Amino acid sequence: MCRLTCLSILLLIPAAFSFQSSTKKSVHITCSKFNSAITPPITSTSLQSTVDETATDTTTKTKKTWFPIRPADALSPSNDYNSLVNSAYLRHILVETEEMADLVMNLYLNGGKSEGDDDGAAQSSYERTDGDVFSRLATDVSTCPFTREDSGEIGWVDNPLNNREKSDLNDVYADILSSEAIEDLFSRRVKGGDVIKVEGKEGWHLIRVDDLFIKLVGDTDTTADGSKNRINKVRPKLKGSGQIPLSPVFQKIGTDADIIDSNDGIDNDDEQSKMIYSVPNAKHYQILTSGCQMNVADSERIMGVLEGELGLTALDAINTADPTLITTSNKKSKNKKKPTPDILLLNTCTIRDHAEQKVYDALGPYTAMKRAGKPLAIVVAGCVAQQEGEALLRRFPEIDLVLGPQYIPWLGELLVEVGKGSQLCMTESMIWSEKGGSLAIDKDSSREKDGDWMTPIKRGHSVRAWVNVIYGCNEHCTYCVVPSVRGVEQSRSMEAILQECLQLAASGYKEVTLLGQNIDAYGRDMIPKRTFADLLHYLNDNLPPNTISRIRYVTSHPRYFSERVIDAVANLDKVCECFHMPFQAGDDEVLRGMRRGYTFDSYMKIIQKIRAKAPDASICGDVIVGFPGETEEAFQRTLDLMEEVKFDNLNTFAYSPRPNTEAANWENQIPPEVQSERLQRVQALAAKHALERSERYVGKVIEVLVEDRNPKNGGEVMGRTRQGRQVFFEGDIDELKGELVNVEITEARTWSLVGGSIQD
Asked: How far apart are CA 291 and CA 423, in angstroms?
């Protein structure tokens, strides 16, 4: 499409856009359509963060505060935005007037379609060849002579409000962006995926932030007073052994896979530095993972960093999850010398009771090795790391790195410091970056797509893959530790998510599961706001045919679940007909105590809408029994809700007090024996309903995506329906893996189905 045609389309867009173009307001105000996210009262949601404007006090309004909800607001004063963010990678579109900027913004947010163009009619849709509509618009619409032919790419622009030494980058871009425009941009504390409208000397800019550059470690200890982060560059000898704790040296891999010397900077004439020079390079790693899908996805990213950025290899051919994080001994092999890793990483979970003790038990054998003088890097990552922080270093001084989940993009950089003898604790709140200050990129380099600098990922499966779309949670349910260990919500840009999916499609993957602790909150932290339904439509429209055919997602929150998501699941061909809708309890008083923000009736209204629009969809959920104050009558309401819904699958839990949660301190705790009895009743009813839901498939021919061999029968393969039900049938895994097979169901089991393939 030529540039003139594009401009013509923009000028002919209906006036129904209703832009407030007469005032110079930021785009998240002018594009009001995209700011209409649900905002329930402060008593039931974290979206309201400052003032309760409905207060009825006639003398003075009561100000109510909530937890931080924006990533930049969650940063500590010692670790604030401008001290962290060195630079941002920018693209822009330059147009003459604010009205034109608003029109282009709306076209971009609608994925290239005019507002109201739901059917995608060709005469009113912006033609595009890929999902990066912004870059296409920059090429076809922007009036900037310097960046138009490069899809609007400006490159790295330094943050003028950062107090570190500046480069001359901003002087180079002076003809593109004025210093005032750059300062205006960073004053808004932008992050990856944000699109900001800024007035410049030559007109109006739409500036998209592709990523942030954040360097955590300098030549000296960089943590300020009051920060949770710690960087100890000189470590004391270990008590009892007198050993200086040693780690192997970690070498960077350059862009041409060359090894880069990482001993630069070790020039102190002390005992520690002399010993480090004699330590061999790290070669092998071992990861033990526990917890949810998010932790499994995190471990895949961690392995990607260890292999892709540092050139390490896994110690074992199978390097997957150890759910208990307990190292077990084998008496028969006591005399055999087992290989040991150069780096041990525990990726931990704190949801269940006794999680911390399991980590302590797992650390024991490895800390003993380190006290005996073995060069070994010990890393504790995940939710226990975030929860315990520096306390882990005090209890186990042999640990080299305590890594909060938000710091995974910087793991390579931090391990290089570990190899120089440093001990680090990185648990302070952080702004997410696709690549941050990673070793594998040069800050002066350029890129074509948002996915070019994603943290490398080593996938655990060859057919289906996890794709993170939003990190953290703002809800602060009274029983849940997730907000304190995963931080505030931070959405990835749609472009970065798509590029990751396109890479998976090119590698032959057939299914992706979009991950988020509260996935329905996707986009509400972005400028301007987006929605999860927007993301589903965007991915469905832009994934090439005959590649990824199934999109799943977890986990929804009933408070924010929208009809647009139901419509997307019901109508989009790639989105699977499966809803994961945790209800946690059926009694309204218990739900209020949990701070869930919905009731029995409002939850059932959602279920009724799902049944009406997607009658064949599966509905899964989570439930907690024995929450503080739960009476037998209240528990019965949970059973009532289960009877009304009849879940296809239900994850069941007995409540356990977790650190840093409100309900843990309440006095009305339920005795363990009562919790156990209620859990058994819930599980029995859940199994009954699951079997009923399985029976509806018997006699039907169902499309199954083949994933693996049946571990209990080598002559059978295992796959899943679009609704997520496991199916077993006879077949050759070498021929069928990754294929869509029509299977006639002959037997229903509680959690699975049995059938036979139908030949074409």
From this structure: 26
**Could you tell me if 417 and 426 are in contact, meaning their C-beta atoms sit under 8 angstroms apart?**
no
**What are the structure tokens assigned to 685, written together?**
């009813």
Please give the Cα distance from 565 to 720 (Å, whole number): 22
Q: Which residues lie across from 382 on neighbouring strands?
A: 348
Of 72, 56, 53, 74, the closest CA to residue 64 belongs to: 53
Per-residue pLDDT tens over the stretch 605-615: 999 999 999 99
Rounded CA-CA distance 569/561 in Å is: 12
| Share in percent of the chain as helix, strand, coil (round to 5) | 35, 20, 45
Mean local confidence (pLDDT), 477-506: 94
Helices assigned H by DSSP within 353-439: 355-371, 382-388, 390-395, 411-419
Which amino acid, residue 567? D
Task: Look at residues 725, 706, 299, 131 and name the one whose alpha carbon lies nearest to residue 464.
Answer: 706
Q: CB–CB of 534/560 below 8 Å?
A: no
Q: Three-state SS for 343? A: strand
Rg over CA atoms, the chain:
27
DSSP per-residue string spanning 543-563: SPTTS--EEEEE---TTT--H
Compute the C-alpha angle 378/380/386, nearest 5°. Answer: 150
The model's pLDDT over 9-59, given as tens digits with 9 standing for 90+, comes to 444 443 333 333 333 333 332 333 323 332 233 233 333 333 333 333 433
How does pLDDT run across 176-194, given as a tens digit for each residue? 999 999 999 999 999 999 9
Strand partners of residue 380: 346, 402
Mean pLDDT, residues 624-644? 98
Measured in degrees and rounded to the nearest 5, phi and psi for residue 32 equal -65, -25
pLDDT band at 174 (very low <50, low <70, confident <90, very high): confident
The answer to whether the beta carbons of residues 352 and 480 sit under 8 Å apart is: no
Residue 226: pLDDT band (50, 70, 90) is: low
CA distance 195 to 156: 16
pLDDT of residue 442: 46
Peptide bond into 671 cis (omega under 30): no
Distance from C-alpha of 235 to C-alpha of 247, rounded to nearest angstrom: 12
> Is a pLDDT exceeding 70 seen at residue 533?
yes
* Cα Dmax for the chain: 81
Tokens of 355: 């999680």
Q: Decide if 425 contacts 230 (C-beta within 8 A).
A: yes
Pairwise CA distance, residues 400 & 591, whole Å: 42
Which among 610, 697, 687, 696 has a CA at the least distance from the CA of 642? 687
**Alpha-carbon gap, residue 258 to 176, rounded angstroms:** 35
What percent of the chain has pLDDT above 90? 64
Token couple for 475: 């809800």
**Cβ-proximal residues to 11 (8 Å cutoff; 6+ apart), any chain:** none
If DSSP codes are grouped into helix, strand and coil, which group holds residue 729?
Answer: strand
- Of 79-83, 230-234, 442-446, 521-525, least confident by mean pLDDT is 442-446
Q: How far is CA 370 from CA 247, 363, 397, 402, in A?
A: 9, 11, 10, 16
Residues 2-16 pLDDT 10s: 443 444 444 444 333
Higher pLDDT, 691 or 334: 691
Contact indicator for 728, 717 with CB cutoff of 8 Å: yes
Torsion region of 331: left, alpha or beta (phi above 0 gives left; psi -120 to 50 gives alpha): alpha
Q: Which residues of 622-646 are buried (b: 16+ CB within 10 A; e: fewer)?
A: bbbbbbbebeeebbebbbebbeebb
Q: What is the distance between the alpha carbons of residues 724 and 511, in angstroms, rounded to a whole number?
A: 12
Burial of residue 22, with CB atoms counted within 10 A of its CB: 0-12 exposed, 13-18 middle, 19 or more buried: exposed
Question: How many helices (H) and strands (E) would you count in the chain?
Answer: 23, 26
Has residue 253 got a pLDDT over 50?
yes
Give the residue from 109, 121, 96, 134 showing the smallest Cα distance to 11.
96
